[in-house]
Amino acid sequence: MTPGECPGRAVEEPPTERTTRGSRLGFIEDIETNIALVRKSINSPTLKVEFFTVGEIATSRLAILYLNDVATPEIVGEVRHRLGQIKVDHVPATGVLENLMEDHPWSLFPQAYGTEKPSKVISNLMEGRVAIILDGTPYVLLVPTLYIQYFQGPEDYYDRFWVGNFSRVLRYIGLFIAILATPTYIALVTFHHELIPLELLLAVAESRAEVPFPPLVEALLMEMIIEMLREAGLRLPNPLGQTMGVVGGIILGQAIVAAKIVSPLVIIVITVAILASFTIPNYSASLNIRLIKYPLIFLASIFGAFGISVGIILFITHQAAMTSFGVPYTAPLAASAFVLSMIPQSAAQSFTATYYVSYVGIFIMLGLPVFLLLLSLARGVKTV
Amino acid sequence: MRKVLGLLAAVIVSTMLASGCWDATDLGRTGIATAISFDLVREQDKVKPEDKVFLSILLPVLSPQTQERSRVLTAAGKTPGETRSERSNHAFRQITVSDLRSIVISEAMARQGVKDEMDILYRNPFLSYHVKMAIARGYAADIINLKPKWAPDIGQVLNNLLETIQQQNFVPSVTVIGFRCNLHGYGQNPVVPVIEEMTKEKDNIDIIGLAIFKKDRMLGMVDKEQMKFLTMLRGEKARGVITFPLKGVRDKYITLQGTNSRKVEVTFEDGSPKIKIDIFLITDIVETGGFMVGRELENYELVKKSAEDFIVSNCEGVISKLQLEYGVDATNAGTAARAKYGKAIEKQDWDTLFTMADVTIKANVKIRNHGAIK
User: Fold this and answer.
1) B365 forms bridges with which residues in the sheet?
2) How far is residue A117's CA from residue A40's CA, in Å, rounded to a whole number?
3) Looking at beta carbons, which residues of chain B come within 8 Å of A216?
4) Pairing between strand B102-106 and B132-136?
5) Cα angle for residues A235, A241, A245 (degrees, 5° grid)
6) CB of B60 within 8 A of CB of B89?
7) A359 touches chain B (CB under 8 A)
8) Predicted ipTM > 0.85
9) What confidence tens digit (pLDDT) does each residue in B132-156 have?
10) Structure pTM?
11) CB contact under 8 A, B98 and A382
């Protein structure tokens, strides 16, 4: 049997991108099949496929796909250039490829959109993006990437306008809840008691009175338990994974409250945060959102709402300064065509100016109102 | 890298300085004061012979294992400030005022002046804008020590009463911050609801009138009925009920429920002020005692006229009480004079001017949904 005759699995629905109403087709490990799945829908001579080889010892075939008349030649050229720069022994997965190609390798935020669905690849090619298919993995990368892209679900295009937009807004709300629920709880019970309605405050204080740990330890303990449950659920076979979820979620949750290790409100807050994180349709983005939460938790426990607002501004500033293959990562929220049109053409073309415009735009639109709101709410606790 | 580290260090240091992170207190280890009372100390409560002030703080009990839902922390001292150090010796928890909802001051103390008590409150920037004030007839600590069987603690009863009364019976909801504004504003004097333990329901409190202040010192009070009209005269937006006799119809009473507003105009004639107060009342009919208002337009006019006359006569009674008995302007008409005549008027004592003022009151009652066809 030659390597080309290796048996492969059949095309099936990707487990991390299930849809209710969308297409159920998913990529597999074979590059030829994956290209065929795309070409089946875009039967046009403008669809270009270019093959590359990556890896010095264990070589892998790689293909880039783009629409010749839609994709910007500069971006296609940049992809070619970056692929040519890769000098490693082996590229086992698209994650490694992503890390080797992206503009900001140390950033928390994903800069190449990964998907297993041909339908997503097709619609992104139509928008001028470049798809990178690596042999041996069903995960296809799409570049350049915008942050708002991670909040688009396949169902958005199957449902009616209102429903699709409602779902998208819900995901944005989910993003804020996933990131801010636990830090806000810590900030409220440590610094800003007066912001909680008195009746709820008394109930919270009563539940906290018998817990021996400070809110930071209490929340971190619960977050770690949930993270471990989630990780364990992934490794276990499907039926066992579900059992683990039930055992962990319900029995352990009840037992931990009864043992007075954490207060019931923490369980509610963390469960809501986790539920909200699952509304993000992209797996890489939801993993990243989980990580953003932790620095904010520490900032909230030390500085209260002020710390949260500083943390958010730092994250937004960082995001606003990022690019994906030369395209501002936060577009169209910042560095939009409108904003760029207001500054001289020569300045707009330079990357420095783009960063600057991105920073100012994002800061004014999101950072400043959040900062002012939290600052106005940030009143500490004082004794009589 | 050095630049990034420098920037990060600057952010951390500035955040530490700006956030006030040293104020952090764990909610589980905090005593949440929901109500506070100030009294002139009684002999039996004195710790030292020179003690003057007696402070009581109502703290909800946070442990679910105890039967008591609240405890009262007390302390005596020469000044309100000294009570803080005294009560710290047995406080058990760090007390916070950020969730304080009401403050009760005894009548005796209010008559001596409440400048010191207000001073310690104003100086606390964490005091909420919504903290309500009341004057207790008798000993204020007795009110704080009430243990109603039908509510978690008296703090909640007090909070709800002072918060909702504005929407029920033409009683102004007076906040500590509002009191301060009246205290320092030209031509203004504060009024505060007076509460008392109910004689019938031993574990409940009742609003019995409105205390009249000349700046920080209580002069006297108006009763429950006059309280409604003083609220209307002050223009404190409130909602309430008035019951009045129908003119020309024997033993027939009409009850209206509505919201009030007012307009004031101050002019000077021969050195003495002329004050014109227009009271507006938008009402619904609650009760007519069988009188069919809706049938004829004249009936509607009769009810309207009766209500307006009733309001005017009662307001005139309140004004004469303020002018002759207390010599103080509790209607805050001085603010209109200050707005019209500017700083020049501040040279004269408004309360003295008010006592010799010619006050004209006009009431405008609008009855909604009366049923008459024009």
Assistant:
1) B281
2) 14
3) none
4) parallel
5) 120
6) no
7) no
8) no
9) 999 999 899 999 999 888 888 888 8
10) 0.77
11) yes
